[in-house]
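SEQUENCE-TO-STRUCTURE ENTRY
===========================

Backbone structure tokens: a row of integers, each naming the local backbone shape at its residue.

Task: work out the structure tokens from the sequence, keeping to the layout shown below.
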Amino acid sequence: MASTVGIAPARLAPLTSKSSPYSRHTPAMEAYTLADRGTWLSFGNRQGLRVLVEGGRALINVYSVIPAKAAAQPAEAQALADRLLSAEGQTAIAGYTVGGARLFHPNADPLP
């Protein structure tokens, strides 16, 4: 995937948390970092790191909800899925922001 967006995979380092050695040393390593929008916005120690590539189909980060039949509480699992897929749930997901930036773009399309 890195080559799809024009990044050399050998220079790709993860940005996982403030305590990660990669997050502290990525600039010194002269490496690239792949991070989701929420991690980037909450990451305070950027040390000159900047967003080089964003948007586009290659970087879509899809979240799914699948209630497991073997769940300890299957009725509650189904209720959560129904809530997330409802119009009200989709509105709540779309309204979630960090620092004023929208993180999620809901696209519930239940199967018939």
About this structure: Residues 62-112 form one domain. The helical segments are 21-29, 37-42, 74-85, 87-94. The longest strand covers residues 12-14.
